[in-house]
Amino acid sequence: MCGIAGAIGQGAAEITRKMTAALVHRGPDDDGYLASGEMALGFRRLSIIDVDGGHQPISNETRDIHLICNGEIYNSPVLRRRLEKEGHRFRSRSDVEVILHLYESLGTSCVEHLRGMFAFAIWDERDGSLLLARDHMGQKPLFFAEVGGRFLFASEIQALLASGVIDRELNIEGLWHYLSLRALPDDLTLLRTVKKLPAASFLTRSRDGALSVHRYWDPRFEPKLKMGEHDAVDALEERLKETVKSHLLSDVTVGAFLSGGIDSTTISAMAAREQEAPLPVFCVGVEEASFNELPTARKVADSENMRFFGRQVRADVAALLPMMISHLGEPADPYGMGVYLVSRLASEEVKVVLSGDGGDESFAGYDRYYGQKLADIYSLVPAAVRHRILGPLLSSIPETFQYKSLAQRFSWMQSMSDFDGATRYARALGILRFPPERKQELFTTSAVNLIGNQDTDAIVMRYFGAENVADLVDRMLYTDLMIRVPDHNLVMGDRMSMACSLEVRSPFVDPDLIEFAARLPARYKMKGRRLKYLLRRVAERYIPRDVARLPKQGFGFPVGMWLRGQLAPLVRQRLGHSKMAESGIFEQGCIDTLISEHTTGVADHSYRLWLLLCLEFWFDIYIEAADVPDLQESTLACVSATD
Could you write out the DSSP letters of every residue in 496-527? Predict the structure, then answer.
């Protein structure tokens, strides 16, 4: 994969070189620049297709339109043949060159014809315009800023900061929403001067500096496909096989992430059957048996044509947090740490891997989907009984700090029974982190007064209540496809893999597959209590049946245990004297209460404490410009002292 950057305005060439140099991890194989007057483009390359000839920037036949692209275009062979028949002449075998010629023919609507993952910039000298675009689900990132009469864009926020012209000022509105959603919705980032180009969107900038952002795609859930269950299984299998095959387009070896989950195992098994050579697959696990997916992953690998690479990790990997967060541009979810570690393992063998990201959100894989129906039933119990009798009884269940512990499940049910519909789903997304009442306790009064739109629930509800979805299950899936997938899952997947110079491809977020899944009847996605029903039916044709029927484990770590054990000194060191509190944003007393309740076993605050801990590192790096190696050294010393 690659990194792109560019600037318009005074000193554009020098600024672009600084930004591009900060993206070397995204493209260690090659670099390229183009500058003219006050416009410059920069590119870093990870060579995967047309290894020898795919240099960028790429120019058209008349050399007045120029492209830089971070991405892979899976339907490029079809598009190339069509464009060549129309008279376009190609200079390389690179898949992304089709974008340039499509733009010549179709203008900005070229994005609607691309099937792949991409973030690109096209500089059109003919009218002095700039076009920026991102793929349908936002697999590839793109950020921009207007400051001091200049316009800058880059694949990562740290590249924009490397320009030396961006203000390091916290965007408190973005922080408010992030603490509930663990995602930054719409165009928000955690820096006030930096914006994100949303998924499925393109931005145009005219010669006079006028900006315009347009959304070009939205998944359709209607009309529903009319087919019986058996036909639906067959149709899904064929769609998924074709999608996986298209994602294997490469001039270098492709591997796959293989956890114990249904999504990655199905993708890996399909990919293995498409290749003659054994498919390299990669998995990380932990010492704690209830969280360890290595045994299941190895079982799948042994049943198919796969070459297995596994590695066990310990709590001291938390010392990697400063480096991870510097790449992310936001706090690191525990899931992100897993992606980084398995990416580091994979990068020792391959440049490209397939992943299972997006399967849960198209095929109903999360417990909360069925939990909404259970909450409907529980809410029929009179409120007085729920709060005065059942509530105290349920809260007495001891917390084990295991994944989906009984205490967590009952606490979730109790909390959700006070809401319904869109509000309930909005609260469900933030319940393990900071729902509205906890944010009111965490933020100081002065900080709250600085926040514009305080209603995070409204962001969720505008998707949940959209007119293009009807069934309850589809409403939840659409909401997650619009928020969770582009602004959380794919963020972690892209930044953590690219930190290791590894490209990750996610067949489940292919737009054609998403639209097919969206139009399937909801009863095929969640059948009774059986989550991801139709996908499991397909999976049983490829992997051992007992694996296909395993409950969802989640790609994570025993963070709750670690924060009470090996990582407790780090929590006390960093959160006991929070810089976010010293800056007047958070209440130190609220943080102290969370630490005390978690360490004494009163409540499981693992997700909240992990988020706050990572936010401290983010503040060091992105606001105070702290040296990442120094932070990493001090963190390692603190964690190692507990061994």
Answer: HHHTTT-EEE-GGG-HHHHHHHHHS-HHHHSB
CB atoms within 10 A of CB 447: 20
Given the DSSP bridges, would you call strands 65-73 and 129-134 parallel, antiparallel or unpaired?
Answer: unpaired
Question: Distance from CA of residue 206 to its chain's centroid?
Answer: 31
Ranges of H-type helices in 166-306:
172-181, 229-246, 262-273, 294-303
Give the C-alpha separation, 619 to 630, whole Å: 15
Token pair of 312, please?
A: 């066990």
Q: What pLDDT digit, counting tens, does each position of 500-542 carry?
A: 999 999 999 999 999 999 999 999 999 998 999 999 999 999 9
- Identity of the amino acid at 621: I
No. of H helices and E strands in the chain? 32, 17
- Asked if the bond preceding 558 is cis, omega within 30° of 0, the reply is no
Q: Rounded to an integer, what distance in angstroms lies between the CA atom of residue 532 and that of residue 524?
A: 8
Helix ranges (DSSP H) in 68-109: 76-85, 97-106
Sign for the CA dihedral angle at 547, 551, 552, 557 comes to: negative
Name the one residue in this structure whose structure tokens are 């910039």: 121
Question: What number of other Cβ atoms are within 10 A of residue 89's Cβ?
Answer: 9
Going by the DSSP 8-state scheme, the letter that residue 349 receives in this structure is: T
Q: What mean pLDDT is reported for the chain?
A: 91
Paired sense of beta strands 58-59 and 2-8, if any: unpaired
Structure token digits, residue 275: 């290749």
Contacting residues for 90 by C-beta, under 8 A, at least 6 apart: 80, 83, 84, 97, 101
Burial class (CB in 10 A: 0-12, 13-18, 19+), 387: middle
Q: What is the per-residue pLDDT for 643? A: 55
Whether 166 contacts 625, CB under 8 Å: no
- Hey, what are 622's tokens? 């992105």
Determine contact, residues 213/197, Cβ cutoff 8 Å: yes
pTM above 0.70, yes or no: yes
Distance CA 153, CA 213 (A): 14
pLDDT digits (tens, 9 = 90+) for 467-508: 889 999 999 999 999 999 999 999 999 999 999 999 999 999
Up-side HSE of residue 444: CA atoms within 13 Å toward CB? 14
Phi and psi angles of residue 91, each rounded to the nearest 5 degrees, phi first:
-95, -15
> Measuring CA to CA, how many Å separate 522 from each of 239, 261, 473?
18, 21, 6
Residue 70 belongs to what H/E stretch? strand 65-73
Q: Could you give the C-alpha distances from 153 to 109, 143, 170, in angstroms and in order?
A: 21, 5, 19
**Local confidence band at 552 (pLDDT 50, 70, 90 cut-offs):** low
Cβ neighbours of 127 (radius 10 Å): 8
Q: Which amino acid is at 611?
A: L
Q: What is the pLDDT of residue 55?
A: 87
CA-to-CA distance for 47 and 54, rounded, in angstroms?
8
